[in-house]
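Quick one:
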Amino acid sequence: MLSKDLVELIQQIRKNGSEDNRIEIKKAAGGCPKIYDTLSSFSNQSGGGIIIFGIDQDNDFDLCGVYDADDLQKNIVSMCKQMTPVVRPVCTVATIDDKVFVSAEIQEIDMFEKPCFYTGAGRLKGSYIRVGDSDEHMTEYEIYSYEAFRKKIQDEIRVESRAEIEDIDTDSFAYYLTQLRRTKPQQGNLATEKVMKLQGFSDGQKPTLAGVMMFAEYPQAFYPQLCITAVSVQGYEIGDLGDLSQRFDDNERIEGTIPQMLEEALGFVRRNIKVRTIIDSATGKREDKPEYPIVALREVILNALIHRDYSIHTDLSPVTIRIFKNRIEVENPGGLYGRMTIDELGKTIADTRNPFIAKAMEVIGETENRFSGIPIIRRLMAEYHLPEPLFESRRGVFKVTLFNHQESTEKTNENSLDNQILEFCSVWRTRAELKERFSHLTSSYLMSYFVNPLVAQGRIELRYPEKPRSKKQEYKTV
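Output:
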C-alpha cells in the first residue's frame, strides 16, 4: 500500500464511521496496543486484512495519530514474531495534518499452516477468526476443520462400533454392487467383504459411517441427527405467520440413506413451491413450469448431503431446507473444505471432503462427481431469468440461497431490507445490535448503504445527533 492509498482509506473510514471484516482500527496515541487476536484472525481469513493505527474509534473516529511511527513498527514486528506461524506484516506510514498514521497489512497464510495463533496462549486459546468487525475465539470445531484437512482425516470412514456388517448388507448395497460390477468389473468382482473394505464401507469388521449412511435400512438408528429438517413458511422469515396464523405451511424431518433423503427432500420442495401453467402459442400444448429449476434444487441438496461435514463435531447438526415466499435456503454443517473459496466455486476443481460417499453416489448414478454441480445451478437459474444463486461459507456452515421471481421484481415490498431495519429499530438499537441482526452484511456495507441513508432521509433518528459517528450511537425509527 502506498502512503496516498493509506490516506484515502483513513478518510473513507472516518466518513463511514465503522470498521469492517478487513479493517481494524487502533488508537496507538500513547503506545502500541496488543494485536495478537487481530493478527490471528486476519492471517486465518480469506484475503487477510489491514490494521490501521492512529484513529480513536471511541472518540468519534478522531484522527489522533500515533505516538512514534518507528517504535510502533518495531512493536508490531515483535508481536508478529510471537505468532505461529510467524506473521510477516507490510507496514505503511502516512501523514495527515502533521499527524502520523501507520498501517500493517496482514496476508492470509497458506491453508496447510492454519490456524495461525498467538504462541503464548496456545492453539486452542490463541486462535481467532474475524466475524464482522470483531475478532472471535475459534471454536474447537473450527480448529479441528483446519487440522482435518492438513492431516487428511477422513471422518466418513470412522467406524460405527454399534453397527454390524449385516446392517449394511442390504438391498441398497446389492444394487450398488450390481452397478459397480457393470461399470468397474475389476473392483466389483472381488469378494463382497473386500469390496466393502476397499470402497470405505467397513474396516473389515465393522461398518463405517459412509457404509451406514449409504446402505443401512435405517441410518438414523445410529446417527439420529444426520438427517434433513425441512420447513416451508408463508412469509419472509422464520416466525412470520400465514393466513391462518400457522407458523409453517409444511414441516418435515427427512430420514433414510443419503439417496433416500435426496429423493424425499425433492418431493418436499416440489409440493411447497409454486407451479405456473404455460401454454405454448405455437403448439397449444400445456406445460407446468415450477418457480425454481428442479435440477438446480437437486444439485444444491445433493451437494449438501455429499459434502457436509460428517465429523463427531457435527453429529447433532442436520442439513436444513427452508422455503420462504421469495427464496429457498439449503444449509449444511461444514463450511467450504480445503483451499476452495467462494470466488472459486464452480471454476476450479475442489478438494473433496467425503470422497468415498461421492464415489458411491457416482456408482449408483446419483451424481457425475465431475465438479459440475455449481455451474449447472448457475446456468439453470440464468435460464429461468432468476437472480444469481447466493453462496455463503461462515463459521462451519455452508449455505446456498436461490431466489425466485418475486425477489427479482418486487424491489420495494413490505419486507425489503430497508423496512426490516426500520422495524428492527422500533426501539433504540446500538450499532452492535444492528450488526448482529443483519450479520449477512459487512458492517461498513450495512451502515453506508442502508442505515446512514435512512438517517439522511429522516426515517431514522440518532440518540446522539451531535456525534453521528460515536461508538455509543443508537438508532430509532421516527
